[in-house]
Fold:
Amino acid sequence: ISLRMTRSATSLANWTRAIRRALDEAGCDGTALVQKAGMDLRLLEDPTARYPIEQTTLLWRLAVEATGDACFGLKVASAVTPTTFHALGYSLIASSTLKEAFERVVRYFHIVTDAAELELGRSGDEYHFLVRHLEGLRPADESVDSFVSLLVRTCRGLAGPGFAPRHIEFAHPRPADCACFDKVLRAPLRFDAALTRIVFAAADFERPLEG
Structure:
């Protein structure tokens, strides 16, 4: 399964709302930082509004500077709710298997952002979920961390809190504090990889979900 984006690079304003919420929870002024990044606050009240990736990338940088937290991207995932990404969030909850949920992520990823392309495919007894940035575009590393963390949290919400991928690869360099990555993701990690990849056991991915 492959999805290629052709539109200009933007992200859903609701994603920025999650960043602002996480900043507030960290004791920072999230609204002030959104403004500092040059983002129109009025768009945060429009569920269909989108921001240019350049602005959200700047916001991520400002957020890490303000919090002093190299793991801030991982923590933003906890500020995402089922309504953040509209019907997509509810469709994931309604999936009968993790495979079905991830097929929907690939199919409707453009709702969240069109700054990357996703692929999902089986290789032997594994499923590989790949994230490729569009040529010439480099989103903030923290945005990738947040996305990966959100996917792993989604898996645990559907398949149980003990769920973990077989391993995860990040295209960005190893962070200064890797302990929080180990704690949150609970899977073998590799950094400076060719692309971001989450590898799942096929049996886990295809197993019917309870409920």
User: Anything to note?
Assistant: DSSP finds nine helices and eight strands in the chain. Residues 1-7 have pLDDT under 50 and may be disordered. Residues 141-159 form the longest helix (19 residues).
